[in-house]
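Chain particulars:
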Amino acid sequence: MLIPLLTIALLLLFSAFFSGAETAFSSLNNARVKTLA
């Protein structure tokens, strides 16, 4: 009974981590472009 809950929790953690990493990379790219331009 715990396995489905664990899988759902892991999926939520992975989605949150990837979304945060995506936003961080986009902000880094924007800062890099501003410094270069």
Observations:
- Residues 12 and 23 are 17 Å apart (CA to CA).
- The chain is about 95% helix and 0% strand.
- The radius of gyration is 16 Å.
- The mean pLDDT is 91.
